[in-house]
Amino acid sequence: MHFTATEGIEVVGRLTAESRYQGGPGVIHGGILTTAFDETQGMACMLLGTAVVTGHLQIDFARPIPLGSVLEFRARIDGMIRRKVYTSSEVRIVEGAAASDEIVATSRGLFLKIKPEHFTPMQEFVDGQPTGLPTFGDSTL
Ligand SMILES: CCCCC/C=C\C/C=C\C/C=C\C/C=C\CCCC(=O)SCCNC(=O)CCNC(=O)[C@H](O)C(C)(C)COP(=O)(O)OP(=O)(O)OC[C@H]1O[C@@H](n2cnc3c(N)ncnc32)[C@H](O)[C@@H]1OP(=O)(O)O
């Protein structure tokens, strides 16, 4: 996906519904759409300047999305409480046979701000390759 920061804490991302993303016949798989929402809302959180992980993500699939559609996702920060960042996003078909102003799916997500050490226990699994870095069982962690 490609992202653009707009005014305020909002990002816009575009994704083409390629054939390899097919779920039901001729339409995009809901899991792909979910991943794209996760990425877009996560990217909005990155504008805060801290790393986050997804805690909770809820999608409403309002319309089937034909393969070949160009999708535009818009995501924003709705609020923050302590480490919790509340986000929302919607998607429209902006190019293709089904293009219109109608919102075809929406998402609400809770992201949690994390420290870099969050990933330390997983270092040995990065890219599935042994890294020689400390592991879960290492008492020095
Ligand atoms: C994946 C990359 C992220 C790294 C970023 C770094 C660089 C990346 C650069 C560019 C990338 C740019 C954009 C993309 C970014 C992100 C998009 C993809 C993100 C993912 O795809 S990421 C994978 C899936 N994700 C996980 O792998 C999380 C697994 N999970 C955990 O690691 C823990 O579960 C954690 C950390 C979430 C919380 O654990 P914790 O111990 O730190 O916090 P704790 O439990 O104390 O909760 C504190 C307060 O949050 C509330 N709370 C917690 N969870 C809640 C829930 N589910 N629902 C409602 N409330 C919840 C509590 O109720 C409490 O609330 P209160 O403050 O009011 O008491």
User: Judging by the overall fold, what is the CATH architecture?
Assistant: Roll
**What portion of the residues fall into strands of 2 or more residues?**
35-45%
Mean pLDDT: 90
Beta strand count: 6
Kindly state the percentage of residues in helix.
10-25%
Which strands sit side by side, in order, in the main sheet? Answer: 1-2-4-5-6-3
Number of domains: 1
Low-confidence stretches: 136-141
Indicate the overall shape: globular
Task: State the CATH class.
Answer: Alpha Beta
Structural class: mainly beta
Chemical compounds bound to the protein: ligand 3IX
Largest sheet: 6 strands, antiparallel
Order of helices and strands: EEHEEEE
Query: What name does the CATH topology carry?
Result: Thiol Ester Dehydrase, Chain A
CATH superfamily: Hotdog Thioesterase
Radius of gyration over all CA atoms, rounded: 18 Å
- How far is it from the N-terminal to the C-terminal residue, by CA? 35 Å
Q: Tally the helices: what do you get?
A: 1
Q: How would you describe this structure to a colleague?
A:
- Residues 26-96 form the Thioesterase domain.
- It catalyses: tetradecanoyl-CoA + H2O = tetradecanoate + CoA + H(+); decanoyl-CoA + H2O = decanoate + CoA + H(+); (5Z,8Z,11Z,14Z)-eicosatetraenoyl-CoA + H2O = (5Z,8Z,11Z,14Z)-eicosatetraenoate + CoA + H(+); dodecanoyl-CoA + H2O = dodecanoate + CoA + H(+).
- It is a peripheral membrane protein.
- The chain has one helix and six strands.
- It has one helix at residues 30-46, and strands at residues 2-5, 10-16, 52-61, 70-81, 84-95, 103-113.
- The relative contact order is 0.19.
- It has one domain (2-115): Hotdog Thioesterase (Thiol Ester Dehydrase, Chain A, Roll), CATH 3.10.129.
- The radius of gyration is 18 Å and the shape is globular.
- Ligand 3IX binds next to α1, β3 and β6.
- Residues 38-39, 42-43, 46, 51-56, 82-84, 110, 112, 114 line the site of ligand 3IX.
